[in-house]
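Good morning,

Attaching, inline, the backbone tokens for the sequence recovery test we're adding to the shared suite. The designed sequence is right after.
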């Protein structure tokens, strides 16, 4: 009896002896399979969110220039030097069709922002210059978290696709997988843009044509030692140019007079020699 009880107790737990238990065994295997990936490291979970602050900088510059078209050309040179790109442009013209106002949007690498702002301020008469910074660290963390969640969701859908046993299920799961993958790619692109240290910063430049009195005022503001030295040098060059001009005018006549003076002088000298000498009477 004891031996028989042991044999019965050994056969009782076998699920294969009960036909209705077969799906339960398969279900149990599926449950075990679905739990395994949750315990494993999901794709992208080892991504390290940067601890440094992520900052996007924006600049606004207002300039005056006597030639707005020339200022636009100078702005393009600044963009080229700093490996940037030109965004939106807006211009307006006066009654003669000459550009008198310009709005110029520039995008430059963040590391080139300060140098580009300084060079833009030297293109014309600086009216105003502002720079602001936007902290997007929280946005970086949020997008990174969404990327991880989306990767886990795609991993689950891929497991369902592998287990699908009819065409309708395969089509439906593949459609969901394609949608999730597109969303994941978009999130990764956003995250790369925010985390990239060479991401672009925006500078918006407003250029207006300087009025005539402003141009005269700029000329009047030139004073001091350097201005005096410059004026003195200009005066010296003007005087030298005048002397050279006068010498050029006189030189041909001087040559003619010299040529005529030589025979006249010889003639006078010979005449003096032929004149009789008079002796005084006692």
């Amino acid at each position: 009896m004891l031996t028989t009880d042991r044999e019965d107790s050994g056969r009782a737990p076998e699920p294969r002896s009960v036909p209705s238990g077969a799906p339960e065994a398969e279900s149990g295997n599926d449950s075990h399979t679905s739990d395994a990936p949750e315990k494993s490291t999901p794709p992208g979970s080892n991504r390290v969110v940067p601890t440094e602050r992520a900052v996007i900088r924006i600049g606004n510059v207002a300039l005056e220039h006597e030639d707005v078209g020339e200022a636009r050309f100078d702005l393009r040179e600044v963009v080229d030097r700093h490996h940037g790109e030109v965004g939106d442009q807006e211009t307006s013209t006066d009654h003669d069709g000459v550009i008198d106002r310009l709005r110029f949007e520039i995008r430059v690498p963040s590391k080139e922002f300060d140098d580009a702002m300084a060079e833009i301020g030297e293109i014309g008469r600086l009216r105003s210059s502002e720079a602001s910074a936007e902290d997007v660290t929280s946005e970086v963390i949020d997008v990174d978290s969404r990327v991880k969640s989306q990767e886990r969701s795609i991993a689950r859908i891929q497991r369902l696709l592998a287990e699908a046993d009819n065409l309708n299920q395969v089509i439906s799961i593949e459609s969901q997988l394609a949608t999730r993958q597109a969303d994941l790619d978009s999130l990764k692109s956003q995250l790369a843009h925010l985390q990239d240290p060479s991401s672009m910063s925006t500078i918006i430049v407003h250029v207006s044509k300087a009025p005539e009195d402003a141009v005269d005022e700029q000329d009047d503001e030139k004073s001091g030692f350097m201005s005096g030295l410059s004026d003195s040098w200009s005066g010296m060059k003007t005087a030298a140019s005048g002397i050279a001009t006068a010498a050029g005018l006189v030189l041909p006549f001087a040559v003619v007079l010299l040529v005529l003076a030589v025979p006249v002088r010889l003639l006078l000298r010979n005449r003096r020699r032929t004149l009789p000498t008079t002796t005084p009477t006692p």
